[in-house]
Amino acid sequence: MKKFTKGVKGSISLFLSMIILLLVILEGFLIDGSKVLAGKMKLANAGDLALNAGLTYYDEALRDIYGLFAISESEDELKANLEVHIRRTLGENVGAVDEGYVDSMLNFVDEAIQGEFSGIPQGNLLDMTMEEGSLDLLKLDASTLSHEYVLKQQILEYMKYRGPATLGYGILEKLNMFKDVGAQQDVMEKKLDYEEKLSEIDELCKAIYNALNPQGETGYNDLLDNSLKPENVEAGSLTVNQHIHRAIQGAWCYSLLKRDYGLNPNWQSRTDYSGTDVQECIDACTELGDLTVIDESARANLAGSNMEIQIRGGVTAVEAALGYVTEFEKYCTLYTAMENYEEEYERKCDEIEARLEQLDEEEDADEIDALSEELMELQEEYVATYAAYSEAASLIDSLARVLDVARNTMENAVNLEISAAKATMTIYKSAAESLQKRAQDGKARIQDLKNKLVEVKAAGDAWNTKIDGLSDGDVKTSMKADYISESKTIDEEKIDRLRERLEKGEQYAAQLLDSINNTKAINFLVISGSDAAESMRSNFDSSSHGSETSGAGGSGYYNFDRELYIEGALNTTALSDGSITVYWVETPGGGKMSGDYHQMDLSAIKADMDNISAKNDEFYKYIERMCDEKNTDEGLQSDAEGAKDSLLNAGNTEFKAEGIDVRLDGEDGGEKPDDFADTGSGAEDDAVVDNATSNTNSSVSFLDGIEALLTGSRNKLYLSQYAMEMFSYYTIEDTEEGACTLSNYPFSAANNVMYRAEGEYILWGNPEGQTNVNYTIMSIFGVRFLLNTLYAFTGDPEIRHVSLAMATAIAGWTGFGIPIVQSVIIIGFALAETANDMRLLLKGESVAIYKSTDTWVIKPSGVTKEAVDSAINTAATTVVNEGKNLLFNKLNELTEATKDDFKKTVSNYANDAVDTIVDTAVSNVLNPMEEAMVSLVNAVTPDRTEIENKISETLSAVQSSLVTSEDTIAAEITSLAFETFSNSYKSQLVDKIYSLQQRAESESGITASDLQNEIHTYFTSTQAALENSLRATAQSEVNKLTETVNEKLDDGNEKLQEKASDAIDEMMAKINGGQSDHNEASQIMPDGSKGKTSGAGLLTLNYKEYLTIFIAIESVFNEEKIIKRMGRLIEANLASSETKPSPDFKLSEAATMLELSASAEIKTTFFAMPVPMSGGGSKVLGQDSYSLSYKGVLGY
């Protein structure tokens, strides 16, 4: 043995010892390392369990009332509670705490790890203690409900389970009803724009007529028929030219008279003659007697009544003047002799009188007698001499003045002739200017009309394009029919023919004016010149014809040939010299002769007068009838105006919230919808249209988010549903008896700080509850007005009949003003209907989204104000027939027990559908026919062929507008209505229109009242006949569908609601193709199934549902605000709730996530053991404990 072991020397033992030591050390590390890892897991589990425990400290009131989870306790309270949980989990001996479920679990785990197992005490494998002050707990600020995204997520989590149930069947059908509203409103806006422009055509047509026939002035045709009738103008020109002819003759004579004959009228001038024999001098005037005769002849002729006699007097006066000049010296000698004689006479008398003064009466009596006798004889001689002289002097004075008299007389005569010519020409000039102005103004207005027709066509094309963009269905068909009936215009060829007439009339007037303005007598412009005689004389003297009178003075008295000069005056070449004399004829050098005088020759005008006058022009006769006052009945017009005002006033009813006195201040200060522009009585039509367009635009803008809601915005619907199911609204007390939240907590003023105004606050955010409710009412009114307007324009034939009758009473039945007036009246109907809808909605009742003939209530029995007022008053007391509007509500409640009741509801729906189908089909065919009838009655020219062509054209357009591609009962009945009318009623309509046309053309004409009665009677009877012929077919087809639905209901009760929904959907789709375009994306229900949107014709909405939709739409654009306002309400309600108060609740402190951090020490077994060192001594490889840390986040 020794030998055996001697050689080993302990090397193996040493080796094994070293190996074992290393293994022991490794094992120690592994054991302590495992303890650390296990400690970390234990600490993590303790932390996670503590966080879970922390989440149980949620606000119970928040959860119970609003279904939301958040921790509202302070961090210190949570920290204290959770520290106990962690310590106990780690195995520390801590004081007792209230044990809940989580606490029990923690104790179980703790005992399993370090307590007794099967009654056998075990060692404390993990000796862990939590470090003092290491626990830190935070409620994460980013997770508080004051953050909108956190609150949204909480709401959506809650609604995932509640949402599908609250949405139910029909909600997307209702939303889908609004989908095409924007496009339909766009069509309506384009229609109103077209009609406004069309009404301007009416005004422009009247403007053309008024331009041709100004009030208080002679019209275009009257001018041509009277003063400017060619025969009258020819006669007038003859008269004018006669005056001119005589004026030229007179001017010739006046020129002769104005020549210088050397006449000195001052013959009483002394000469060197010294004689005193006056009689001898008188006897020396040998020609005085003859000259006196000539003078008297001249004066007598000058006083004559015609130019020829006056010319003779003038020429004779020249002869007398020449004689005067010839004997002028003799007359001067006579005057001198008389002067000498008088001087001699005075001298002799003075001598005798002086002698007599010297004589004595007694002594010189005889001489005195002799001188007295001599003086007497001398005086007697003087008297005789003076008398003889005075007589001669008078004759001589007359001779001296006769030339002046002749000059004045001839000047006046010429001026009178020219004045008479000018006066006559002025009359014709005024008439021609009037004719020219009428033609020019008429042409200008015609051009305005043609320009407007371009605008109208563009507006009509835009309207038609928008219609083509609509989804196929009854609305599109009706709007297309409306377009067909209104897209009328004037035959521009007929307008051009009237313009051609006016152009010819203008040319005729211009021809007359040109000839008038150029008419001249010896270069004197008759129409514009002044001082005619003097101007003509001057022109004559300066012309080549002046020589005809210039030599008269040189011939002398004895050689003067009176007759030669008279002949020269009467036949002067100036009369025919076209260079200086232009008579009033149609063209210079034209005309014809009437005896010695020129006259117009208007034979060409006479032959073309039918192409100048407009009285037989087709278009002129059309606008003449348009302006004929007998087209309107003042009494009927006044009554219709009153009816229109009643409708507009009914729509101006003010709806405001009552009994809302709540307030909640908010950060955003609130919003405001677009104002609804009121339109009262007396408003101009364009103002009504503009307001309606503005209001409907605002409503469409408000509904812009519908498309987004229908294409994947399920969460928006959940948010709006949460808002309306967890908060109160204005009509909650009328809509829901004992209304509660989804969590079954009652709504009340004690629990809700903005009771009856919370949903409205969520929508608008204004502090005042009443303000928010009023805004909501205003918005609902706008949407209802939009929907009612769309229906009124496209649906009810009775509205069309009555509005057309009222429009013709107001606007007259001629022209293009009827459509816009009718539209204004239809807008009035929509306003009145909307006011009635609001009355019902604010009482918590439901109103059909799209109206039908059954659900529209404002239906007057006539066009009078009394009838309209009666209809409005009746509507105010109407109670909604809920039986017609419960189809989808009944579907939501459908069970085996309610199946029979549901069948009755389906039957009611089917019967209503039959009425709607038939009414709509007949309306689509008759509406364009009715308006075509009014248009054709006022046609330019009665023409049966034209009527037939127009009716055929209208029917063709109607046929092309009908939706025939759909396999629906509505399409089938509409096609049948078209075929029936075309085959059975077309010829009757043509006959009726032609009869009314002839009456319109007759002298007696047709009144607006007559027309209304004729049209109303015809179309009422035709409508009734058509409806009767169609109803049986429609009823039969719909009954088949009803039976199919009933069969599916009777198949079994498995998935009864789903089967019924599918059956109803198929039924509605078969009836009218539905109200949507069946876009897949638009029909996804919140639960992932397809929505049922076809046939929502009887769907209704109440105030609550409108508010729900508004909030959903608003959340599309302003989700953050919507959520923030809900948060404010939650905080305010919890703080003041009477049922379950949470007075200290704050959104900013209500966290949904916790962050926990902690540290613990774990005892080690081997890390602290001393290890021997070579050379002696030992070394500790680690500590006796190890520090562990934990940090975790957890939330709901």
TrEMBL record:
The chain crosses the membrane at residues 12-31. Keywords: Coiled coil, Membrane, Transmembrane, Transmembrane helix. InterPro entries: DUF5702 (IPR043756). Residues 663-675 have a biased composition (Basic and acidic residues). Residues 335-388, 432-459, 1031-1066 form a coiled coil. Residues 663-683 are annotated as: Disordered. This is Uncharacterized protein. It comes from Candidatus Lachnoclostridium stercoravium.
